[in-house]
Structures are given as structure tokens and as C-alpha cells.
Amino acid sequence: MAAAGAPRRFCRCACFCSENLYVARYGLHVRFRGEQQLLRDYGPILRSRGCVSPKDFQQLLAELEQEVERRRRLGQESAARKALIASSYRPARPDVYTLLQDAALAPEFLAAAEYSTSPGAHLEGLLRQVETLSEKKRIYRVPVFTAAFCQALLAELEHFEQSDLPKGRPNTMNNHGVLLHELGLDELLVTPLRERFLQPLMALLYPEYSVGPLDSHRAFVVKYAPGQDRELGCHYDNAELTLNVALGKTFTGGALYFGGLFQVPGALTDTLEVEHVVGQGILHRGGQLHGARPLGTGERWNLVVWLRGSAVRNRLCPMCCREPDLVDDDGFGDGFTREEPATVDVCVLT
């Protein structure tokens, strides 16, 4: 156990550099430990998706080796970008860089969070405060931010995007967007959002993940636009729970679709499509298979917060589905800790 008062040290699982490498051209996530393993495990499906010539395969190998190296350097390069941004960037909207205030949040979200912390709060009462998109899949929607805050945050993100400062990829599938911790918005915006509001609300909606606190997160904004990312392949998140908030702008298409949990056979046979509503957040389990339909017109920006609970993931890494092989990391890492977790029984619900 960590000494009392000592800052918590978060870790990642060593599988980050070998598991769930996304190959967009073939619409496939792969495990990669070398050429022979790749051929043995994925040869038939790769050929069925167009990887047929030696040149195709060598190009794929080069891309995977490049991605592995990118992941190995990720923490160091992200820290360097954050330091450079902190020393060189001049915000367009300094008001965004203040501790999250209730005035930025939608009244419906404040009411739902307040109810969740009230004595005697229960799931049935909370469900009267949020919209149930799928009772079976346990997917919900609730207004999160005011229109004014969405506009202010989006103006700041666009200003940063137009700067010549370096920008990291939001995640391993999206190429365009912003990592909020690099921009200095983690402590001011996302941590209070998680600790004050999402923690109690999620504990009622998803009690199987409330054996310990949601004690870390990864937050990023993704951008979809013509000539950039237009859609997102089917995947599940490296998170226990996820919040996805549409920030704007004006767009058509790009609906989210949801299947079942990734552990369940035939998880994509019964899908649910959900249109984005600016300012509103979709809440779902990280293990829920999902993706985004192609953008039609305009630009779509979404804030995504992966909520993580070390008491859950310390027992089983959601990416490799094994006991995590811990590697020290910067910041929140991937939400693992070396502390002895509470006893956890994670239910797989459909």
C-alpha cells in the first residue's frame, strides 16, 4: 500500500505496446509481437480484407512497427508537448482555464448529480432525471454543458488547433483533436467533473463499477471534418465507463452506433444508433462495442472522457483480458495502481 499522504503513482499495462493496434485500412485491431505471429493469427482475415500481396504485408508490418515505437515514446513526448504548450501558448479564451463552475453545467446535469448524492437516492429515481437510450444496453443521455460553455470551449480548441504548437493524437484510432491534459485543462475541467458530478451519478447507473472510486481518467476532444477523420471503426474503450459530449459545430451524419459488450459472442448483431445533440452527453460502459458512422457535412467536435477505477482494472486489464503487467507511467497512466485492490466481482451484463 502507498504511504498515507503520498501521491498515488499510476501505471499502464505492458500490453499497451502489443495489443489492440488498429489498422484502419483493414478495419482490424490486432495483437502484434512479430511477423510470424501476425501471419499465424491474422493471415486469413487480412487476406479476406485485401492484404494479399507481399508488398501489402510488408507495408502493414512497417506500419505496425511504427505504431509500436510511437506508443513506447508516448509518455515522454506528451510530457514535452505539455511543457512547451504551458510556456508558449496564449489562450484565446482565458475564462476556460478556471476551475469548473456550476454555471458551465446544464441544469439537468446539476440536478441529476445532486440527486445522486442525496440520502436514499436510488436507480429508479435517477432514471427519471436522465434519458434512457437503451435499457438493455444501459446507455443513457443527459445534458452536460450549457450552450455558452460549449461555444467557449470550442473557440479555445479551434484557436489551439490553428497554432503552430505540436499536437498529440487523441487516441490510437483518431488522428485529429486535442489531449486535454496537454492543454492544461485536466485539473481545471475534467478532474472536478469526474470527482464532483460523474462519480456519484455513475455509481447509481453502474453499481458494479462502484467497488472503488473512479480515481483517474483520460480526456480528449476528437474532431471529424472533410479531409480529416470522417468516421470511427468499431471498438471498445480502455475505460470502465465513458462520457461522450457533443460540443458542436454544425454537421450532418456521424451518428454513434452501439452493439453489446465485447466479451459477448455476436455483440454486433443488435445495434443501436444514437444521434448527437450539442451539449448533451452519452453515458455507456467502456466495454460496449461502438463506432461512429461517416460524417456527412460540416465539422463535429466531441469531448470524450474515459473514466477508470483502479479497484476494477487492477484485477483484469480490459485490453488484454489478463492480470495487468504493470509499468510505471506519467500522470494517470492507464489507470492502474500497484496498491492492493478491494475484492471485485465485475458482472458482464447484456
Quick structural gist:
The chain is of the alpha+beta class and 350 residues long. The protein has helices at residues 35-48, 54-88, 107-116, 123-127, 147-162, 180-183, 186-205, 310-313, and strands at residues 10-13, 21-23, 28-30, 131-134, 139-143, 177-179, 216-224, 232-235, 241-248, 251-253, 256-261, 272-274, 280-285, 288-292, 295-298, 300-308, 326-328, 336-337. 31% of the residues lie in helices and 24% in strands.
Keywords:
350 residues, alpha+beta, 7-stranded antiparallel beta sheet, 4-stranded antiparallel beta sheet, 8 helices
How would you characterize this protein structure?
This protein is an alpha+beta fold and 350 residues long. Helix content is 31%, strand content 24%. The strands form five sheets. A seven-stranded antiparallel beta sheet has the order 4-5-13-9-16-7-6. It has a four-stranded antiparallel beta sheet with strand order 8-14-11-12, with no helix packed on it. A hairpin with a 4-residue loop joins strand 2 (21-23) and strand 3. The radius of gyration is 20 Å and the shape is globular.
